[in-house]
Amino acid sequence: MQHTGTAVRVGAPPDALARRTRVTWALLFAVFTLHTALVVAQPILAGAYLNGSLEAMRSGHAPNADAITLTALLLVVPAAVLFRRPGRGPRWIGIAAPVLFAAEGTQVALGWAHQLALHIPLGVAIVGTVVAIEVWLVRYRVRIGRRARVEVDA
Asked: What's the rounded mean pLDDT across residues 49-78?
């Protein structure tokens, strides 16, 4: 066996390693897709509040912010697994997830402190970043799926 620089558990069949990697990517993709939906909904819920509805803040924008923070925290686990195990995907995912969690936590704190001069631009940056990562994840997942089909057909 040629050493490739990646850690391989002795006795673990390659199929088991590939299956765990697929499960980790599927978990990351599912949680991030939910996270993206929540993040994209946040400006809409903020718009209802800015339109004069205090109830929109209590029943929409604030609880959605809590859900966003929770899903961002849930993203850190599969991203850390992918980051820790070389060859399982790009390492930037393991860095991006905790940074995103920190940015969204800061966003919540700025919102509660009514620091709109920082809250709104940071929100725009978060939405743009999350959508860009989601697009990348979809494209990466399609690429992995094509590669798996080619290997099965060969």
From this structure: 87
Sequence-ordered strand ranges (E) for the chain: none
DSSP code at position 10: T
**153, two tokens:** 């057909």
DSSP letter at 13 equals: -
Domain coordinates of the chain in residue numbers? 14-153
- Rounded to an integer, what distance in angstroms lies between the CA atom of residue 107 and that of residue 61? 12
Closest CA to 62 of 102, 103, 101, 108: 108
Would the CA dihedral through 133, 139, 145, 148 be positive or negative? negative
What is the DSSP track for 75-100?
HHHHHHHHHHSTTSS-THHHHHHHHH
Q: How confident is the model at residue 140 (pLDDT cuts 50, 70, 90)?
A: confident
Percentages (nearest 5) of helix, strand, coil residues in the chain: 80, 0, 20
* d(C-alpha 100, C-alpha 84), whole Å: 18
**Per-residue pLDDT at 85 exceeds 50:** yes
pTM: 0.77
